[in-house]
Amino acid sequence: MSSIDVPRPSWRSRLLRYALIILYCLAILLAFDFLYSTFIFQKDPSARVADARYSHGLKPNFAGWDTWGPARYRLYTNSLGFRDFAVREIPAKPAGKRVILIGDSFAEALGIDFDESFAGLLYRAGQARNDKIEFLNAAVLSYSPVIYYRKIKYLLDAGVQFDEVVVFSDLSDVQDEAIGYFCIDEHPEYRRYCDPAPVGAARKRLADYFVVTDSSLRLIRLRFYSLIGQDKRFLRKYPRAAWTIPGVDVGNRYAPLGVEGGIERSLKNMQTLADLLRARGIALSVVVYPWPTQLAHDDRESRQVKIWREFCAKNCKAFVDLFPALFAQKDAHPDWYQRLFIDGDFHFNAAGNRLIYEEVVKQLVPR
Question: 311: domain range?
Fold first, then answer.
């Protein structure tokens, strides 16, 4: 009996079959992820709230947990809605000198406990003095100059008294001022860009309804960036800080104002803050620091430093440049990134926060 030859499927048919099998498996995984995320996964209550006066902040008197990437850490706020060691009442009038720290996620210290943050260390140092200095941390994720001004003005209007404001000016401030927060800006030329629609809704839906998928994508991105080399990694992953690097094309990431417009608006809102504080007899200081992008690309004479040094020449009690201290760490240690930053992230770890504290305390806390 002769055998019957069965025609083999073409490579196109096999490829289509494999693609359909993969899509089928992905659909099942997403379905299970959605059911788990919606009906089983218990998300921690969030301390983060919207605020029409200054965009967003933290709930007052909050005791709970927060997450940043894979890190889960305790989060406490005081009666002013500032990150703190514990829930506690902050009187409007201080017993001695009071300094308000403000900045974005770097100053909030995402991913680590408050007692490891430079704000927490400054508070301890201030309280250890005979003439106590109370450092309070008003910083919150994604703040920028327009919010620095609006939040400080809100605190003053509410009767909160303080002697000095220290702004930790972040490199991402320029992009934030170039692309958003137009609805709360008091400068009329920016109000025409106001769009009250919430930003990042698609990202929020993924994180809320596909928790496992969202976490998996984070890990995949982390592994990818660890393979492509340090210089490319910091430019691709952190384009918000790339505006100081000569020759880098930032594309349309700074629309509608562009990089120069973002710088101009940052300066205008910081000048408005400086004028407000000067009228109240309150000192202003500014601190600048590099991202991993600047360290990796040897941006020692950074435009970030030049801009705020010139601003502070007329407006500040002190200008604190942390670039030299951080570049000294890079020069001394080939593993500077692992030493100073959260793995796979651009925020400082506990050691990086301690280094910032040690440099800042020299200039802002008299001996």
Answer: 48-200+239-364
Q: What is the pLDDT of residues 16-44, one digit of tens each?
A: 888 888 888 888 988 877 777 677 766 77
Residue 117 lies in a domain: yes
Residue 190 belongs to a domain: yes
Beta bridge partners of 167: 102, 286
Residue 20 falls inside a structural domain: no
Give dist(CA 150, CA 186) in Å, integer: 9
Contacts of 131 (CB under 8 A, 6+ apart): 96, 97
From residue 35, alpha-carbon distances to 27, 39, 201, 206 in Å are 12, 6, 20, 13
Number of domains in the chain: 1
Please provide residue 72's backbone torsions phi and psi, each rounded to the nearest 5 degrees: -125, 125
- Helix (H) or strand (E) run with residue 273 in it: helix 258-280
* C-alpha torsion angle, residues 88, 89, 90, 91 (rounded to 10): -160
Q: Which DSSP symbol is given to 172? A: T
The percent of residues in the chain predicted with pLDDT above 90, rounded, is: 68
Which helix or strand (DSSP H or E) is residue 42 part of? none
Beta strand pairing status for 97-102 and 133-137?
parallel
